[in-house]
Design goal:
Blueprint lengths: L1 H5 L1 H20 L9 H16 L5 E4 L5 E3 L1 H10 L7 H26 L2 H16 L1 H5 L10 H13 L4 H17 L2 H16 L6 H12 L3 H9 L15 H11 L4 H4 L3 H5 L6 H35 L5 H18 L16 H12 L5 H32 L19
Helix pairs in contact: 2-5, 2-6, 2-19, 3-4, 5-6, 5-8, 6-18, 6-19, 8-9, 9-10, 9-11, 10-17, 13-18, 16-18, 16-19, 17-18
Length: about 425
């Protein structure tokens, strides 16, 4: 088995297979998409723009009260310029293609920018996010969160070169745009800014970052005016505020097992009778593999902490700073809202939950070829199990059409008057 996981050709073939499989699942059964109130509203606004030419100055009202900025609609108007808009399927296809492109962008970034010492966890993260059930699900409908992946790759790529004027400028520009597409983007971009300013501020060309941020914030002006003239909105605090739900959601995004979020009351049938309990076995396998990664990491931290921390938890490591910003910075930022924290807030993290899993897996790897082989086998098992779970999930949706949960009724099964 050691030779199998040491072969560069097999590694490249496996990564290519994961990317291809992930691309196919993003494009498969195209008319099984979700098409609910948010998707209907967005698509009708796109059609309205092309009928009237009126550029929207604010977006859809958010769940917390205030409207989203106009960029949340502009991204779909831009995509719609490339496809027919007589029905929502072509626009949804554009979103799917954008997500496939994000996988290729991620691979290019890893190959070109990440130092060879840190590259292997990033490559495993690329394979994992390609087949992750949630990453695939959140790439298959007209929803603002679903256009984040290429922007996140672009922002991390720019942040990676933050010492240069162009890199810092693009980091600031993309960061300023994220929250205008969907509200959590403000907190995600803010986390990267604060963590970097706190832990590595000397690495940043701050004038470039400031110029990019100012330029990116210009589309916010109509939104700020609209907010200033709107009546104050007061919403009740959730019962589960000030909890650590962001850790649970991060782990769910990394593992792909929390599909009850989508399936609701159908989840028990999905993992049980429908699959002959095969899905339950898959989920148990994923949990077991992740627990094994955690146990190996804990054991090595006890035995070899002085060898682990300088490599994997080093403030000079850009990967560690990215993960600190995306998980803890962003997660703690969300806690300041004093509101419930939902799983879909973490769609913005794209490949980073998978990267944290691979990073911990290699941090728990001893300096022997056998230990490295075990780590690669564990991660390969997770790729295979998550890909199989993703295919099962889409197969279930395709066969059922009407889901007693958040997914609802697939587009092709809707009455004609709702399409």
């Amino acid at each position: 088995m050691g030779g199998l996981f040491q072969s560069p050709k097999i590694a490249r073939a496996g990564l290519a297979a994961a990317l291809l499989f992930g691309a196919v699942l993003r494009l498969l059964w195209h008319d099984d998409i979700e098409y609910k109130a948010d998707q209907v509203w967005t698509f009708l606004r796109v059609q309205e723009f092309w009928a009237t030419g009126a550029i929207p100055t604010i977006g859809m009202t958010s769940s917390v009260g205030p409207p989203n900025p106009a960029l949340s609609q502009w991204v779909f108007i831009a995509l719609s310029a490339l496809v027919p808009i007589d029905n929502p399927l072509p626009l949804t296809r554009a979103v799917e293609v954008v997500n496939v492109a994000a996988l290729l962008m991620l691979l290019a970034f890893v190959r070109r920018c990440v130092h060879p010492v840190e590259r292997e966890p990033w490559l495993w993260a690329t394979a994992l996010v390609a087949v992750n059930p949630f990453a695939i699900h959140f790439s298959r409908c007209i929803w603002q969160m679903n256009v984040f992946p290429p922007l996140i790759v672009g922002m991390v790529w720019a942040w990676w070169f933050r010492s240069r004027t162009a890199g810092a400028f693009l980091w600031g520009l993309i960061g300023a745009c994220l929250g205008q597409i969907h509200m959590p983007g403000f907190f995600f971009a803010g986390a990267f800014f604060l963590i970097t300013a706190w832990l590595d501020r000397r690495s940043v060309h701050w004038r470039g970052w400031f110029a990019g941020s100012v330029l990116g914030a210009l589309p916010l002006i109509p939104w700020v005016i609209a907010i200033a003239h709107a009546p104050p909105h007061v919403s009740a605090w959730g019962r589960d505020y000030l909890n650590l739900a962001f850790v649970q959601h991060w782990l769910n995004m990394a593992s792909g097992v929390g599909l009850k979020y989508n399936l609701g009351n159908d989840f028990d049938n999905f993992i049980g009778p429908w699959s002959g309990y095969g899905v339950a076995v898959l989920i148990a396998a994923i949990v077991t593999l992740m627990l094994t990664v955690a146990v190996r990491f804990g054991a090595r931290m006890v035995a070899e902490r002085s060898a682990v921390c300088p490599v994997y938890f080093n403030l000079r490591s850009p990967t560690f700073l990215v993960l600190t910003s995306a998980m803890f910075g962003y997660g703690l930022f969300l806690l300041t809202l004093l509101r419930p924290i939902y799983l879909h807030y973490f769609v913005i993290a794209f490949c980073l939950p998978a990267l944290s899993l691979a990073w911990v897996a290699f941090a728990g790897t001893r300096a022997t070829e056998r230990s490295r082989t075990v780590t690669r086998a564990l991660l390969a098992g997770l790729v295979i199990a998550q890909g199989t779970l993703a295919l099962a999930f889409q197969g279930y949706i395709h066969g059922r059409e009407i889901i007693d949960g958040d997914y609802g009724t697939v587009y092709r099964a809707l009455p004609a008057e709702q399409k």
